[in-house]
Amino acid sequence: MATVLKASPRQDLRGSATRKIRKQGLVPAILYGNKIESQPVSVEGADFLKTVRSVGKNGLFSLEIAGKKNHQVMIHDIQIDPLKNEYTHIDFFEVDMTSEIEANVPIRLEGEAPGLKEGGMLSHLLYEMSVKCLPADIPEEIQVDVSNLNVGDSIQVADIRSSVSVEITNEDDETIVTVQIQAAEQENGQAGDEEVSGTEEAEGTAEE
Description:
Strand content: 35-45%
Largest sheet: 6 strands, mixed, barrel
Function: This is one of the proteins that binds to the 5S RNA in the ribosome where it forms part of the central protuberance.
Domain Large ribosomal subunit protein bL25 beta: 100-181
CATH class of the largest domain: Mainly Beta
Shape: elongated
Order of helices and strands: EHEEHEEEEEEEEHEEH
Helix content: 10-25%
Region (Disordered): 183-208
Protein name: Large ribosomal subunit protein bL25
């Protein structure tokens, strides 16, 4: 059964009314799409959190307004109060299930890179990937295996493009993850080179 989030229409859009519904545990939101007029609504904060945990931030679900019409929607934007860690506004986008859309999908690294045992440091550089596909085909996440990465190795978008079932719109040369020599080791190596150079200079001076 599809996930359903209940919403109520908002008639009073004044700031005082918005603050009032937030105190009641509701979150002001807007529903919009290419084929509908924008409609202000509100949802229960607790119910919205359950929905996000159930379908993810890129998932599809039904938004039921006033117990009547259901809209197939995705979350387009979420605003959060950084001090209170509470939702302050949500944008719901009604999708056309027959048309491709673009969405950002989180990247999750899998496995353990052998380069870490060699003293390397794993650098995760790209955390989201942009994909283009039908709404129902949007993956919840894209998994990237790092179990073959040694020091100096990296994985670019081009390396995983063929293993992802949907179209990736990122550039091929964007780096997702790399294993690099740790800064301390680089500094030690440079210091060692300077010592060797200094010793050679001293020996050369002595010979003269």
